[in-house]
Amino acid sequence: MAHLGARLTRIAPGVVHIALPARPEVTQQHGYFHAGATSSIADSAGGYAAFTLFPENTEVLTVEYKINLLAPALGDHLEAVGTVLRAGRTLTVCQLEVFAAQENGTRKLVANGQQTLIRVNRTAQ
Amino acid sequence: MAHLGARLTRIAPGVVHIALPARPEVTQQHGYFHAGATSSIADSAGGYAAFTLFPENTEVLTVEYKINLLAPALGDHLEAVGTVLRAGRTLTVCQLEVFAAQENGTRKLVANGQQTLIRVNRTAQ
Amino acid sequence: MAHLGARLTRIAPGVVHIALPARPEVTQQHGYFHAGATSSIADSAGGYAAFTLFPENTEVLTVEYKINLLAPALGDHLEAVGTVLRAGRTLTVCQLEVFAAQENGTRKLVANGQQTLIRVNRTAQ
Amino acid sequence: MAHLGARLTRIAPGVVHIALPARPEVTQQHGYFHAGATSSIADSAGGYAAFTLFPENTEVLTVEYKINLLAPALGDHLEAVGTVLRAGRTLTVCQLEVFAAQENGTRKLVANGQQTLIRVNRTAQ
Lengths: 125, 125, 125, 125
Known about the structure:
The first copy, chain A, is 14% helix and 50% strand. Chain A has one helix at 35-51, and strands at 7-12, 15-21, 58-69, 77-87, 91-101, 107-121. Strand 3 (58-69) of chain B pairs antiparallel with strand 3 (58-69) of chain C.
């Protein structure tokens, strides 16, 4: 995430936002964000959202996710929102949304997904 | 749908609800709805939701869907809600939710999904 | 499954086949199998395939699946094939395929999917 | 892709392989490839695989994909394989596989997915 230039912009129980500014490393020739960047921050937002609800000494792993790329991701920055739909002892399911935001404040849903995560106990390493 | 005993309970632009009462054909030995029934009404609710936004002489086909079965589907009836997230000329994407409802009014999210549909022109047959 | 008229036609470690003959309950006006029937037998084939690898006194639950409906499901019967891709202690992932078979022996892939399942210990009931 | 250090290692009709060597930009502290990198090369392999079957003056866009992260992606390099399952006029469906390969030749499936793509006519820009 740091490598891409992404940062956490909101952390609340079961909800995390990640912002990714437009930069050459994550955009294509016409200024659109790469699908890979869009998906990566969506996956991370869901992972952190799940993690906010976990007890100490646990970790979160993505089991799987599915994402629809709804529209070209063109904007000043992307905002990924991960929201826990169901938190279980073992599995957690999150909704993933990615918005493209312009400097003028307009915001458009460009990707929507769903993710399954598993809680694992942290082991000494 | 008719075969399962399902009925449309709400039709609005981009949103359709389908109710499925508990019956032996769609439930297991302990009264839980079959996953197949849960998924079928979710798929249908999304298909009809997309269809509400289509012009005349078109049809809708499910391209694919993904569904998480979040909790045992136990209740008096199931309610599937299909909501259009993005309507395009060719492809439409819907959110799918299924709730298990009890007679006393409690309602629990038991499945959540996402679906891609395609619009096709109706041909004379 | 029995309600739909489906039957297990192959059970091997990590692989299960289910056949579903064409019948009015599972087909539409033009003889195509309902998407709901196609998905149901795919989900079941994957569930049983996972179950073949589980120890005694355990059960299998579908966590989620994703299915692409590739072509109209027209034929004498459907054959769903569930194949374990990865078997873990907690989670198992299966590939799902559904073929439409004609009486003359032709066979066409009509749906393809991927499924995550969880193993749970059976409790006395 | 170039940014990540990935390169196409096989291009055949309906099948494309992409290799991604382990590098600090795409791996975590313990040498595992990031899920984002794994998913990105899987998505790209499927996109190129579809593109091999398209006529001139067309482009490919990912509609959606679903991916299961099956095992930790530890190795000398990753190899993503995109294979067309069904090629249609409008939509193409691909299977996605990612293997982690060691220098000693061992190769392990670490991710498996399924992807829907759409063909669009290239417009002058």
